[in-house]
Queue: 2 jobs
Job 1
Amino acid sequence: MPDHAHRSPRTPAWLAWFIGRLGYGLLTAWVISLVVFIATQALPSDPARVILGPDAPLQSILTLQQQLGLDQPILVQYLRWMGAALRGDLGISLDSQVPVAQLLFGRLGHTLALLAGVLALVVPLALTLGVSLALRRDRPLDRWGLSALILLKATPSFLLAVGLVLLFSMPGMGWLPAVSILDPQLPLWRQLPSLVLPVVALSLSALPYLTRMVRASMIEALESDYVVAARLRGIPERLIVWRHTLPNALTPAIQGVALTLRTLVGGALLAEVIFSYPGIGTALNAAIQMRDLPMIQGVVLVITLAVVLINLLADLLTVLLTPKLRTARRVKMIRRNRRGIRPWWRRARSTPAQEATHD
Amino acid sequence: MTDARWLADPQVRRGAVITSWVVLVAVLGPWLAPHAPTAMVGPVYGPPTAGAPLGHDFLGHDLLSRLLSGGVSVLWMSVAAATLALLVGGSLGLLAGFSRRRLDQAISWAADVSLAFPDLILVLLIVSMLGRAPWLIVLTVAIAFTPGVIRLARGSAVAVAGQEFVEAAQMMGYSRWRILFNEILPNILTPLLVHFGNMLTWAVGMLSGLSFLGYGVAPPAADWGLMINENQAGLLVQPLAVLAPALLIAVFAYGTNILAEGIGRVSARIGEKQP
Amino acid sequence: MTAAVKIASDVLQVSDLRVELAGQVDVLADVSFSLAAGEIVGLVGESGSGKTTLATALLRHARQGARITGGHIAVAGQAVLELEGEALRLARGGLVGYVAQDPATALNPALRIGALLRETVLAHLPKLPGDAVQQRIQETLVDVGLPDDAAFLRRFPHQLSGGQQQRVMLALAFVLRPRLIVLDEPTTALDVSTQAHVLDTLKRLCRGHGVAALYVTHDLAVVRDLVDRVMVMYAGRLVEVTGRERLFSAPAHPYTRALLAAIPDIARRQPLQAIAGHAPAPGQRPAGCAFAPRCARRRAECAVIEPSLSALDAGHQVACLVPHREVLPRGDVAVESVTAPGEGVLLEVQGLDVAYDRQVLFDVSLQVAPGECLALVGESGSGKTSLARAIAGLGENVQGQLRYGGEPLAFSARQRDARLRHQIQYVFQNPYRALNPCQTIAQTLSAPLAHFFGVRGDEAHRRVEAVLARVSLPARVAGLYPQSLSGGERQRVAIARALICEPRLLVCDEITSALDVSVQASILALLRGLQGEGLAVLFVTHDLGVVRAIADRVLVLRRGRVVEEGSVEQVLGWPVDDYTRTLVAHSPRLHLGG
């Protein structure tokens, strides 16, 4: 083990890693925009016809196509769309004739509020549950808790949502709105009860994965040599859980939260549709049904960019919260294999110096 | 030899029993159904009677007949989607793990990019674009699952390939194919199998969700997901029409899930014996 | 309370300690002993003997699934097993300190060294003012030979070397000034010279602070210079307890004698004797003496009566019905080389360079004669494994020249001629990963037969049985999967896989380092026999005792360069290079001055 590893250079090594990671994220985002554009352009529908209606004369459709630039090569169309998107202009919704960005902005706020509510509920709950199950490993509470979580995990999330809607549309259950149709005149924070059921439905479907992840990494940390050593040094149990175990168990949980968020973005669509919640998911669903091309492009772009951003943040947090990665001279999150020896089919040709590991 | 050890675990047995029970209902159902699934034989939302033990649905179909006929579509589509994803993703993952750095990076990166599209949104986009033919739905669900399989297969293959017994095979000068099929593939089958079980669970959820949203199997065909959507309005009059298909979907998902979990746990336990 | 009369100076009194697994299967039973203040006692046993269970039981800790079910432990007058809650917590660390086996995993990767030390002090002395805590930490760091500056305290464990990490573990134990300290194989993960320094420090601390220490190890040679007394453990029982001199000169229990005969000694070449059979697993103890089935001196009553630990004479206890009473004969029979190495050169390496991120081998040259055993010796990071892998055709980024039988040899095994490829075989360090878990032993062994010689069917079957017999495994092993074999058996299969290729050169990479000494002895004996049949062996190791036991010539590597080369007698007896000298001087030895 090199002894000079602790010497801290002026710029931390993770910064270089992060810049590379950022570039990778941007590249991914760009490719995604390309894919989204081309895929949606391939939709068998003609925006001009959507706008003018089925009975419009051919001549006016052709004129409109020209105005919209639809007669130009797809690459030119893409560059134009891309340039506008970079300025924040995502086009005009074919359905409502309102700028997509404006429509999306309001909807995005609603979906973000929904996701924030889910995170605020799920993360503390999963941590508490995961930690307490791990501390009672193999006792009845743990076994029952696990079985319940498996049941919850297996139930398709839309069934949970449908179940909740049905439950609260029964007579006598009117104390929570079963559907979440918001009044656009009122700010969201005055209509919070409408958020409760969608949040609960999404939380229930996200809870099992995160809880089991926290439980597993807690157990791994609790069984580690350093926790046994700390116990045998007389460190109080409270400190063992909070200082020795939890921080080490949290690092995998960060990636877990990121993955949960990624699945939630998709799951939110179903939940929003079921609860008629005016978020980005219902917008996408409506746009798909109306073949509202600019809207579809806008929504998908925003969602995928959000996912790229989430991944980026999760990786950054993981590096910053793991001392070994933070202080490494060279950060590389992917390990080759246990002994750092490259498999044979990767050898030769390439220069060896690029593949440094820190472990 | 491994099968026997898996079945020794009570959880695996329970999962196998539950899964095969639902599979039996779905596969044999169409022959057992007293009526055609599209025949309107009773009153709208009619309650259970002697002739129709579960009552009737929103158009007066016999609920039991629709239930018995509505499982095949979910079942074959989810199995087909998961199998397709396993085969394609497994091959691509192995290819990535075994090619030189360029191709590996390209495949892994493509998998990363497609993981940025949430599953359901990807499926919705494709289905809305190209139509709702069953094979198309299967294909799109498989496409949505493939990146995950690629990552898993690549990761496990590289981990196994770093072990000494693979190096020993390489030193003997065995051909690459032989190393791939004899040394590596058998050792990554278990994680892939567990993932397959999980994919089944997700596929069931996603397919019935699609049907529920109206992008799946087209009415008037019987389908469990579709039935939930159709009969929502009559919940208070005829709750069975919603609850029964929901229950069957949940039970099937539960069965495949604990089967996968059990297999994963047993093999982890076997693996523990080797430090 | 115990019947034993308490001697004022006894820090630790253990009586009738018993630890069980589920189902009343005992892993540890009838263990009684005591330790005086300032005394260092070695606890020696092979894997599965229950020595670690005993060590942690002294802190009233049992691993998952095990329970302390009986007995009495008193440390400085406190009954440890009766402690609960807060009192138990204070006793752990405060009364009894613990140093774990592998410091790399026993230090929390997320906490700085200073935080660990401060937390440990404050957990026991919450009222100590800040500057007193700081002073105490710095004193302790100086005591264990570590820097005490603020920069060091701010480091994370992964920023320390292995030796420094283990010193931090010592500091964490000594900072609380416990009365007893339990060390569980604390130097296994360290290089010999680091190990020697850590052991020196430990001895000085125990003597200086009057702390009693229980030092758990599998290697008698390691404790040769450290301990005052030794306790030998077998199958969950103490079988012999005696002073150090007595143990090495006149061991009374047949197991102790067998263990001593199995340990390779750097000082002289002695015929290593493996112990036949296996130690019984918990729950499978035979009636009577647990060692009887493997014992050459057993009598009829040994299978009936379980001997208890009783005094042979003053200060010497043994659990045996027919203990040895005579002094161990000084085995002055210097074993001659099995064969005179053949004429000529089988393998020649010239100017070999290997570089990964940085260069690990610099201009290494060596020669191996047919039928010769050349040992490659070096500490971790010396490049010895890279050299072995390069020769076997597994290396990457190799430059230089390889010649085999006078002909140039390609660096990659794949590019070598198949007729040459089977002549150079490699055995890996870790037997647990060397065999494909999805193939039976027969499949693993017959694959190379078909590949190299086109031999299949009955002939292949016959050859597999023959090679299994050659490595002393029963023919029924052929039908088994690796997971039903022990580590030693797996390593034999790995050797058999090499042998079935009819090699002329066998490259062995630390092949015994994961095995118990008695198993190691049998593997070394096997290699010795094969070498007698004309096989050349390139043996990579860090253990100079093993070198003495097996090699004809030795090559010492340091940081990728050859620093010394010569016959074993010459290099180990009269080392010339400074580095070789320290290596030889720090290597644990069984016989002083021998």
Job 2
Amino acid sequence: MNTRRSPPMTLWLWICFAFLYFPILSLIIYSFNVSKLVTVWAGFSTQSYATLWKNRQILEAALLSVQIGLATATLAVVFGTLLALCLTRLGRFRGRSLLGGLASAPLVMPEVITGLSLLLLFVSLEKTFGWPKRGALTIVIAHTTFAMAYVAVIVQSRLSAMSVALEEAAQDLGAHPPAVFFQITLPLIAPALVAGWLLAFTLSLDDLVIASFVSGPGASTLPMVIYSKVRLGLSPEVNALASLLILLVALGVTVVGLLLGQKSRDHRVVPGVEVKKVDGRLDDDRRPPIG
Amino acid sequence: MIRHKKHPALHDPSNIPLLELRCITRKFGVFPAVNEVSLNVYRGEIFCLLGGSGCGKTTLLRLIAGFEKPDSGKILLEGQELTGIPPYDRPVNMMFQSYALFPHMTVTQNVGFGLKQAGLPKNSLRTRVAEMLALVKLSEFGARKPHQLSGGQQQRVALARALVLQPKILLLDEPLAALDRKLRESTQAELKGLQEQLGITFIVVTHDQNEAMSLATRIGVMNNGKIQQTGSPREIYESPANHFVANFVGDVNLFEGELIEWGPEFFRFRVHEADCIFRSSAASELPSGAAASLALRPEKIAFSCSPMPNGQDNATSGTLESVTYLGDLSLLSVRLASGRRIKISRPNAQREEQDLPSRGQTLYLRWSADSLVVLPK
């Protein structure tokens, strides 16, 4: 599509871009500041990156955050997908709307409430059973409970867009339910799973409130460390750290975008074959992936 | 009484049905989508379930495929109970209305899916798929994805995918609904040819009576979850069993009459609307004075512009109100003295227009006692 935008529209577009990205850009620029004072520009250097590399506390927190993120994202995708399957494919069962409501509750629940209630749960569990010890494990459990809801929403929308007839056709052709799931359903909802996984990972990575509630001694995630540092005054190190995170996220999103884009192009065109448009009946795969 | 030639399978009393539905009921909530349906389908038939939307025909098909479980009743295939068997263990395959081709698989993978599930070795799988693709004339398209095909090609992939497992019965849900008219006609012929070649029994669901007429060896007309009538296309059209079938299949003029006189070979009804006596050569047993519906197809009515002697049975007159030209035939609407309109159709045998009477002219109508169908009230 090659539509020409009018000049005022172009200007507006750039204003929007500036509004969205200027704070991030200034953060990246100031991470190369020589001065120890964050707000005063004193010249270019990569000094703060070097000191960041030597800061064990930050590096350990970053590692812990990534580990928690990986575990959370994977668990959330598994449980969220099961939840979405339950809500879209089991028909009407007793308690369906209750389950649906509970599944989406974490989306609207204030984080403070979620954090507090989980803390109370963990404390009483620990008192009664001696398990779980508060720390990385409780953070993973807490993050999974709310990230799961996001995954469920994404997968659910993909599943309801996917015709049940496909699964029925597979059954009709002799595929038993597990074969139907792994050969038909899973490949078709894969883009939603990837999107859900990334979202869950990001949510876990930047959560501060819930993690602060349910964490125990010795388990400080990256946002917790940054927050405690900022309270003692801004430092270029934190800027550098933030810039690296942005780089990482941008790389991840780009790679996934390229992969998904390539996949849908594969579906679209076979080299040397001109594709005719089929009376407007497009299948799901030509729609851009969710997320 | 008009006698119709029956399908050979139905002639032979020793012939056991391939598929037998015994008093099947399927309710959604309290609403019965399929209501106490009993039906026999014989080997080698193309059986069409014909009905409007929501009449239960698709539910009936899904019951046979195993996607729905009947609330009561039994389904038997070759005398074996099929009712509790899940869809993946039934020797029955279905072609879906949406085709339901797997979008992430190539044409070859789609057609080979069922064979792969059956655990066929790679070599024979490849041969069988290639044969099937050749049969539906899609050999060069094996490497394509479904959305790179036209609607007609997609339809043939869906057909090949369902046929490759050599089912005892192939179920087709509105197989031609998504195709345009020209393609539909040629595909109908192909479908019939394929069925004869492979000898697989077809059960086709359709809302299109032309499709049912041209495909079917037998038609079952459905309404409100019940089968109203089963019979050959000719039986359904020429001897409808009731009001609904007469009205649903083809055009019809329906009159209300009361029996006034009958003899060994004739029945005479007084029809006030048409201000004449209808004489029929056949009717089931009716008491004197009983009310009955009389069905008269538009093409069975002859007309002329010159007056006929008064007081004859099966004759009346009216004013020509409109003529609708449809290419192969014209539809005439004639208004009787009572205000009742009668539809008459007539083939356009000549190219000139003056062949037809003009509007406002008085037409004299007549029809034979054979063409009248008496329907019970």
